[in-house]
Amino acid sequence: MKHVFLFSALFLAGVFAVNAQDINKPQTSANVGMTPVQKGNWIVGGSLGSLGYSFEGENFNIMLNPRAGYFISDGVAIGLGLIGSLATVPDEDDVWGYGVSPFVRYYFPQGSSATGRFFAQGDVGISGSSPGSGASLALGANVGYAHFITSSVALEVTAGYNYSKATVSGSTGQSGLGVALGFQVYLPGQR
User: Fold this and answer.
1) What is the pTM (predicted TM-score) of this model?
2) What pLDDT, on the 0 to 100 scale, is given for residue 85?
3) What is the CATH number of domain 35-187?
């Protein structure tokens, strides 16, 4: 009988101890409103991975795209992105790409929530690749959603259309669709 009473007392003490603990869950969203996208703030981050498919060459590609920008007005940022990519071409050598791409990003006030914002981004830049020489024109139009996990860090997903055309005579344009996942850090500017 003593063992049953002792076991019951220990069991109840354990149940109360477990219920008394405060379990910290990781933060998954933050109520930020317009604060991160105000005039004078900075944005630093980029796409960690981008997968795409080219209509003309029937090849797959993956791209890393770090970028930094400055908010020239509430909800409008301009900046510069770097391009690093790898494309796999059937029955040929892989193609390494590089480039630089200025961008403009607009955060829509409509449809936004306290923890996220929709945006559109346009890019115009210059790119090149490992087997070729010379530069090519690179254009991009993307839409996306930024979900703020803290007051200054957002996870992003973007989808869009990209086009590039080499500057050599007789070249044809390349176009395709792409999807990217990334993150941005929103830094407050001096006020």
Assistant:
1) 0.76
2) 80
3) 2.40.160.20
